[in-house]
Amino acid sequence: MRVQRVVMPWDAVSWTVLGDDGSPIESADRFLGFLSSSGKSPNTAKSYAHDLKDWLCYLSGRDLSWDEVTLEDVGSFVAWLRLPPQGRDGTVAVLGELAHHCGASTVNRKLAAVASFYRFHARHDAKAAGVLQVMQAPGRSYAGTAFRPFLHHVTGRGPQPRRAVKVGAARPLPRVLTTAEAQSVLDACGHLRDRLLLGMLLDTGIRIGEALGMRHEDIDIGGCLVRVVPRDNANGARAKGGRGREIPASAPLMRLYADYLNREYQAIDSDYVFVNLWAGPAGRPMTYPAAYDLVTRLRAATGVAFSPHWFRHTYATWLLRKGAGMESVKELLGHASVATTIDAYGHLTVEDARAVLEAAGWFTGQEVRL
């Protein structure tokens, strides 16, 4: 089986899963087509397609029908995912002390994709639709009984669907660049366009897709303001979420943008800020692959193993360390809920904790002599 990119007649991009005979697998194709038609990004559809391919490969290797699986089959799928690819068909023995091929967060992401696949087919009375989820009363569970929080009766929430199988995973801390690492990456950029792209991510915390879809009208040099506007873009870049936002930017970023226009952009006729200048077709909006190719080159040049999203994490973490409120950071990042911001950034590293304790005089004003 393999994942295949699909281009619609109206230039929309989607993904599907092909069987060993090269034909689309009907159950997966319907679900992935639904994702695309309902406005999900091509990257989301691609991720779901790869996760569904793993599930369908697992079923195929055991001669199981996708709509007649049991809860035990789902549990075995988790164990199968943790095996290295060469050990999944049973022909290679795997030593017990080897690290899992898929970590807990990856397994949970794949289970979430499979659960979404079955929820879609539940509307068409698929037999196994209820295997991957159970109905649970809202609140935390203790000894089999759901704990109901204070004022629960006001919310009026009924039982909610929960995944029946989930692997315990520690919440990963966001990866943050140090000042020296961020500076070395920016200084390694050989062109103003590349420095502006990464500088934009660090100075405003926008996502890489939001930067690649940015137009000149979205940048207010005089007001030191950057706007994120959800729209369809020729390069497939997308602004996550349905609403736009305005983000204050620094004067140095605005000067860098002006230098880029004067020295590199010049007579290019395009609405897009980030365009192809040295690789064809010239003047076309910069794509995701081009941006990640730039990141790959900079990682090799600096030795800093970063991704574009690290700049967003760094922006948010630096803001919080300087005393910005969680609600303000939520608005700047464009999160739908402050709970999302708290989940991602409501943490203290050892260095942050030490700074808080020192500021409170904990180490110097102790009342008990140790």
Structure in words:
The longest helix has 20 residues, at 42-61. Strand 7 and strand 8 form a beta hairpin. This protein has 370 residues and is mainly α. The chain contains 14 helices and 9 strands. The chain has helices at residues 26-37, 42-61, 71-81, 104-122, 152-155, 179-187, 192-204, 208-212, 251-265, 288-302, 308-321, 326-333, 338-345, 350-359, and strands at 2-7, 13-18, 133-136, 141-142, 145-146, 160-163, 219-220, 225-228, 245-248. Helix 7 crosses helix 11. The strands form 4 sheets. Strands 7-8-9 form a 3-stranded antiparallel sheet, with no helix packed on it. A two-stranded antiparallel sheet has the order 1-2. A two-stranded antiparallel ribbon has the order 3-6. It has 2 domains: 2-139 and 159-163, no CATH class; 179-307, hpI Integrase, Chain A (Orthogonal Bundle).
List the helices and strands and how they pair.
Elements: E1 2-7, E2 13-18, H1 26-37, H2 42-61, H3 71-81, H4 104-122, E3 133-136, E4 141-142, E5 145-146, H5 152-155, E6 160-163, H6 179-187, H7 192-204, H8 208-212, E7 219-220, E8 225-228, E9 245-248, H9 251-265, H10 288-302, H11 308-321, H12 326-333, H13 338-345, H14 350-359
Antiparallel strand pairs: 1-2, 3-6, 4-5, 7-8, 8-9
Helix pairs in contact: 1-2, 2-4, 6-7, 7-9, 7-11, 12-13
SSE ordering: EEHHHHEEEHEHHHEEEHHHHHH
Poorly predicted segments: 134-147, 149-156
Distance between the termini: 65 Å
The total count of helices amounts to 14
What is the residue-mean pLDDT, rounded to a whole number?
80
Strand elements, count = 9
Throw out a few tags for this protein.
14 helices; mainly alpha; 370 residues; two-stranded antiparallel ribbon; single chain; 2 domains; globular; hpI Integrase, Chain A
